Amino acid sequence: MEKSFARNMDSLADIFVFLNGASESFNLDERTRYSINMAVEELFINMIKYDSGGTEDISVGLQLNDNRVTVRLVDYDSEPFDLTDLDEVDIDAPLEQRRPGGLGIHLVKCLMDEVSYQYKDRTTRIRLVKNL
Amino acid sequence: MLEIDRINQNEIQLKGHFDASQAEKASAVFDTLESSSTVRFDHLDYISSAGLSVLLYTQQRLSKVGGILRLTGMNPHVRMVFEYAGFDQIFEIE
To answer: Where are the domains of chain A?
Structure first.
């Protein structure tokens, strides 16, 4: 299943409808649904925030194979931003030193079993795998 | 969609889906808290990092005046996100 979404915050509602429909047809449990919804939100928001000048829609796809769900996000008009190569967030830091930056990507890595990034010809492809 | 009910001066109830598109609306309410307060999560189904950021900012602001946020009634999935973020160490979660 695959669908494209306009690169703005208002698309989130439609993205969740799409993801919930896919989760329903794959018969995924609540925890897996939550994890996929959150990972896609974090990555989509990241794409529109850091490539606000991009003009192309962002594609979101889900596939169920052999007890694993593969999620793909493709941004056809983007700058390179390797989310697998970011500094780790210090989740033990005291309150006054906490910063929200990087938290979303940190959570994606916690929630998913595999996260991979590819960049070529202005196109960013992110592939996530969640084992069931 | 997120509903934010201000139960009283020091208590907020969140209902529904707290995603990035709701952060601005939520900030406007959380910014009015002036001292230690309780946030009820009983009817909150979902929160992402945008929601966590609103709570973090509020907790940091209140801590400067000796206040804290108490978070109650989280479902297990929301709780999982707090733990992955290490937010269980900087919030009082009941």
So the answer is: 2-131
